[in-house]
């Protein structure tokens, strides 16, 4: 079971000085190229969304999560170069946003086809991130929800699938939880700092059906460290995944819980991300896809992603481009 790294177009901007910047993917691209030369990853690069085929695929994939009116607004809005149109206090639409989200659509489509070809382990490095995006609006740096789109498309195309979504970003994946609510044979698990932005993710919405499906919010306080997280992983997350027995595991992989990250209040180190990856690899399922969410200190982001891949990854071939 090979692991595949997908790198989407890095053309979206929220404006100068914004923490969710193109530097994030530039840093990870440098990491992936270095790792590809030493053997541990296989790199697929998606940078050229330019035909109606990509637009059709984008709508097909994301309409299960967002309204067509909202998606059309994102794709059709003409944004002059150098201009940022604010969609919420933290999230902008730029001249390059259309290309970026179409590229994300290509990457998600590739993941869905890879699943049909036998599954495996994949990591999608894309921006903007997605787990705060709601059905009809952008939120918290996010335009469209890639994780929820993967889960919905798998669920629709494979009636026997059992999809688990784990979100370990320091911020609660409110958009993902909203999108997956009521979906049959689906489990949503989130660990997040609480109380904290976006103010959701208490335990009041938790639900455990007989087969383990439902919602498991695990709010954790400011100052949570590696040992605290290890305990939650061992005592809460893995037992629930084992009970649910997923065929597919989708991960909202946010690395802003690192102690050096400017936007979180946890004290995690790279070591816990390696532990998370290794633990998830032990879950018996046909397909594991991780999708980049937060992580805003560039050094910590690179080290954390490398550590996560060391836990969940497999040996690789050389990179190739599409």
TrEMBL record:
GO molecular-function terms, A-Z: histone deacetylase activity
Alphabetical list of Pfam families matching this protein: Hist_deacetyl
Histone deacetylase domain boundaries: 18-310
InterPro entries: HDACs, His_deacetylse_dom, His_deacetylse_dom_sf, Ureohydrolase_dom_sf
GO BP terms: epigenetic regulation of gene expression
Region (Disordered): 199-221
Spans traversing the lipid bilayer: none
Domain of life assignment: Bacteria
Family of this protein: Belongs to the histone deacetylase family.
Protein name: Histone deacetylase
